[in-house]
Amino acid sequence: MDVREVEVGVTTRGEVPEAAKEYASEKIGQLARLTDKPILFAQVKLTLEANPSRQRPALAEATLDLNGSQVRAHVAGDTFEEAIDLLEGRLRRTITKAAERVDRESVRHVPEGRSPHRPEHLDRPVDEREVVRHKTFALEPMRWDEAAFDLDVLGHDFYLFTELDSGVDCVVCHDDSGGVEVLPGDDAVSTALHADPMVPVGPMAAVLRLDEAEERLDVGHEPFVFFVDADSGRGNVVYRRFDGHYGLITPG
What we know:
Blueprint: E1 8-13, H1 18-29, E2 39-48, E3 58-66, E4 69-77, H2 80-107, E5 131-135, H3 144-154, E6 158-162, E7 169-174, E8 180-183, H4 187-194, E9 206-208, H5 210-219, E10 224-229, E11 235-240, E12 246-250
Parallel strand pairs: 1-2, 5-12, 9-10
Antiparallel strand pairs: 2-3, 3-4, 6-7, 7-8, 10-11, 11-12
């Protein structure tokens, strides 16, 4: 598709330079090169926060209609150039992952949000289990619906992310019905999420040490335990790996 066929609408709030509007239109317009599907609609909003104490005051958000499917992203940066680059990168990853998922599903049907042909967990004795540490996939703060989209395209059981507005670590995961729910990391973000009737909110994370979280994982039947680490105060997820060891996801 010729990138010139994509018309990107840019709106602003606050003192946004004209150069930032042009840069956003150019960067987001180039995303059409990533997909054979038409981008029917592309809208970018640039906002300069008036509060001088706010970190990363340049906000950039976008909504794309990718052949009838909504693709959204919302980021913050120290400058508009940084925010637009982050926005383009997040949209690029989302569009690419969506295309890869379509390719996989054209070969075989996979239930939404689940990985195909998963092996059985090795029933390793508790005293032989070790913790294997990983970093989270979510590198920048995001809204819960963005995290839910990443959860879907990656095919994971859970996704640890830092919630954009509160800065609190949360988890989005699949519920018993096959939908998604958000597990908040503290009371404040739980209250904020409950205020929106569109957000499916699950139980809040407990404050635990790693060994206590491992114990809960051993005695329960859940695939993972989301908890707030008693030492760091950050949200962590411990889960059973297929090799019988523990996996630990910590904030990036």
